Amino acid sequence: MTAPAVTRAAEPAPGAARSGRPRVLIAPITVTPSKPLTPSHLKGLLWADVMYRATGLLADTTFRYSHTTYHLTEQTLGFWEFLDRTEAGRDYADLGEEEIGALYVRYRAADERVPAAALRPYTDAVEEDGWVHPAARRVLDLWSGHYARLGMHDPGLVRHQPPRLGQEEMLARLESLGMCLQQRELGGPCYLDLTESGLPLRQIVTADGRPNYLACALRELIPLASHNDEVVLLYDRELDADYQLLERVLSACGPVVRRVPVGRVPIDGRIRSARHGDWRGLDAATLLDTAATDHGPAATRLGMRLYFIATLGPGQQQSFRPDLLRQCLNRADRLLASHRPEAAEELAARIGGHRREHLYADPYRLTSGLLARHRPAPSDDLLKAVFL
Question: Residue 354: what pLDDT?
Fold first, then answer.
């Protein structure tokens, strides 16, 4: 296995000069590269993209979204082991997301938990060489194409971006903060311990050394937190309990931490995990291809943001509706037809009005403002900087 080039977390060198602007770290939850991007995934990704691009006009902003960090979860390594065991020698280079997604659905349905020893070679390959399974590499390559079509910032989907802390270093840091309960000497697991704050114990590393998603997030974000004035966590509402814990830990490192939960998108009134294969022609590629039949690239990018951010909003009450998406695409065409310049200071002031008490720009307030009646059309400068 050949290791790809390493891109480590963006972090200022000790004593580095500051620009005088506040520093903001935006850290969205990652999507496991094992299936197509669903409407729920698109909503979260577009939300994070608009937040990052708008906030970047007001603050020194870092977007941290590393698949490398979360490849180490059992969910991902277990899928890779399953593929090598059941699909030995298979070439994934020409498979589509739906075909790989079908294999992932089969893996989750099998509900197997292999011994830690079977996953250890995969852990070592990821940690030491930055190795990525060919199936995941294929999905990430396809997603890079979707990102380009949507005009989204690519945070390094196919780059090796390891966290700065190893697992043992992360546990030691938690111990120094008085937030770790280890039972390894007794053959037990490791817990994140915030019971003094009234929060329950949360296992983060199993007795045989397997980390969960929260443990990986701590490895990623603890060393970055202290270099920022504000850390923004965007995540699935169903993970709120874990993100409350993450907020407490990162706050102890110095910055103000903001939690921004984003609801999923129901399909026909039901919210189901992508592990069940419920994309049914609603994946990103299909939605983009459908939009492209009647709309240009700019209208597709803007219309998708109008729908998934402004129309659906932060909650998860409204099911996916193709008719409303079409309306947003048509509205995007009309907004793009009116051309208006805007000076840089006016643009910054406009976006700054959507910050409230926090440093980041609120994607929902900013995007829904484009749909408000009796307001001037958005300037070309705003659209290009944030939405296209």
Answer: 72
